[in-house]
Amino acid sequence: MTGGNDTADAAQPHPKSRGAARRAMRRGPTIDDVAELAGVSRGTVSRVLNGARYVSPAALKAVERAVRTTGYTVNQSARSLVTKQSNAVAFVLSEPQERLFEDPNFSVLLRCCTQALAEHDISLILMLESSDAERDRVLRYVRGGHVDGVLLISAHSGDPLIADLASGVVPAVACGKPGGPEAAIPYVAAEDTEGARQMTRHLVAQGRKRIGMIACTQVVGGQERLQGYRDVLGRKARGRLVVDTSDYSFAAGAAAMRELLSVSPDIDAVFAASDLLAAGALAELRRAGRRVPDDVAVGGFDDSRIARETDPPLTTIRQPLERVAADMVDVLLRLIRREPASSRLLPTELVLRESA
Amino acid sequence: MTGGNDTADAAQPHPKSRGAARRAMRRGPTIDDVAELAGVSRGTVSRVLNGARYVSPAALKAVERAVRTTGYTVNQSARSLVTKQSNAVAFVLSEPQERLFEDPNFSVLLRCCTQALAEHDISLILMLESSDAERDRVLRYVRGGHVDGVLLISAHSGDPLIADLASGVVPAVACGKPGGPEAAIPYVAAEDTEGARQMTRHLVAQGRKRIGMIACTQVVGGQERLQGYRDVLGRKARGRLVVDTSDYSFAAGAAAMRELLSVSPDIDAVFAASDLLAAGALAELRRAGRRVPDDVAVGGFDDSRIARETDPPLTTIRQPLERVAADMVDVLLRLIRREPASSRLLPTELVLRESA
DNA sequence: CTGAAAGCGCTTACAG
DNA sequence: CTGAAAGCGCTTACAG
Hints:
2 copies of one chain form a homodimer.
Chain A: H1 7-11, H2 31-38, H3 42-49, H4 57-70, H5 76-83, E1 88-93, H6 97-101, H7 104-118, E2 123-128, H8 132-143, E3 149-154, H9 160-166, E4 172-175, E5 187-190, H10 192-205, E6 211-215, H11 220-233, E7 242-244, H12 250-263, E8 269-272, H13 275-287, E9 297-299, E10 316-318, H14 321-336, E11 344-346, E12 349-351
Parallel strand pairs in A: 1-2, 1-3, 3-4, 4-5, 5-11, 6-7, 6-8, 8-9
Antiparallel strand pairs in A: 10-12
Helix pairs in contact in A: 2-3, 2-4, 7-14, 10-11, 12-13
The structure holds a DNA duplex (16 and 16 nucleotides).
GO molecular function (chains A, B): DNA-binding transcription factor activity; transcription cis-regulatory region binding
Domain HTH cro/C1-type (chains A, B): 30-66
Organism (chains A, B): Phytohabitans flavus
């Protein structure tokens, strides 16, 4: 033992408290230790711990001092047992997660949600739903009241969890506008339709004539991006210029670009519904010997990290993911407190780089 | 009348309706409900819940049935209060996390750890340590016994958490060999030195004469990769061919490559200590008009997702991250159970693609 | 094998 | 404003 790290503990001989610390396990100070040291009842200590209402200044001071010198930390289990609140929130990925983990957006979301929650002293519990067993576990976990709410990152329609969440029994907020049975869940999303319009208008303003789109209409946000593209192009948005992919991956982008190139060889611009898709398209264009943006302009969506690492760097639509995360947490906390809270739509922004 | 809280509430002059809202929350069945239905004591129910030892077949059956029909789930708080186990583990990122979140390896690690833990019904709590406030929160959280152990992803030397972890009071396992004060923490890592040798040997076998290295010796693993490179090259590994970066990022890779190119214009191969670094180097090489691999061969390290998305795809050293994660969880669980467990080193593998 | 009972460490009406 | 007391839902010796 190098140097006394916890003076309060070290000074304390074990005989006094109840339980007599039979185990060598960490036996932190309890609320009773604090109460004794402060010369008050444990009810009073509890009151200062929970907002210091109805506590005299003298008692408040004594308790605060005692908390500091004992190094007391509340035992969450004991507290939860009576309050029925866990001070934890589940971050649920209900899609085959490999796909989502590949998405740079996901990391930003996870990081920002964790940070926002930490400010409220709430823990983020990461839960994956890739197998049926996992799905079952998450359901039991959420139903069992182990968490106060859930941040739903991407919903799979068949998921039984959806029903619970949509019913409002367990507070929840989705990332991106949900479709199908989960439509009743409040959400936070970027203005996908308008963002897509911004990009399409930009491409048109650049003088591009045959503007293709790599869409991904599996999710509502993707449908809206396609809609925005059509809004601007009108009847010029011919079917042969649109390829719908099954996911937002790099590989899907490359495959879609290949298809576009073979179906419409004279294409001179392409709007990809995500940066990852755009990166894949870029790779395919290079393989085909097309110069970007000279021969074909490429526009992405997200402004994720990858947009700065492609060659050339991507012109894209910025989605304010940090704010999406912060707002998701804000909405969820309101819901947990039974305060009114509704879905939020965040504005997007055109970011000019070199690809278009 | 059990459900008559409406009447009770109406009759009572309570200033805050908060209590009422809380009471209306989900009230699942308790162990007593199960016991009653099964016709046994709650001690017996508890026994079947915890391994079914010393329980008669008849009682076992009755309890299992009762659990099923009531839909009973154990209340973790109540259980933790007595067992002192939380069934949760913290996944701590103790570096400025933006940097790590940028790393594709990180996602793999996080996903695989979550999955491995879920199989044991243990939750993963994600904790970031970017600000002092957060650092403090993590420390209190871990010391407060809120988690049974910690998965330490990257340790910052000044972190007070390290002392707790290194002392073994709280079970912990690090990802990658730790250096400095945390050296006492068990770890799981790839065989960095040997992996670097494999790559360097490959470059030599390709006939490359002036092989540079983009190193990152901030972490022990990075030092070992540099060592492996030197092991193979001997005195041919001249100082001017090695650039040490401050992190594993794309931008750092590009900057390092620029420096190598200006200091040693005749360089014909470069071994980057990570794929992200290699991707940055690739971008810089293209900017400088050098062809890869014709003019300059590029080797990476990790075999992360990005290795397949660069142009050309990266020849790299595969690090078995899925196994690293699985082993980290395995070691941690053993430590938690007070079983003997020691650090593990996992083999690497050369993956041939087009960049070298 | 099983039940009764003693807590685990907290919060929260309730009555001063 | 404050203390005494009644739980919250579980586990675990301890006696049968």
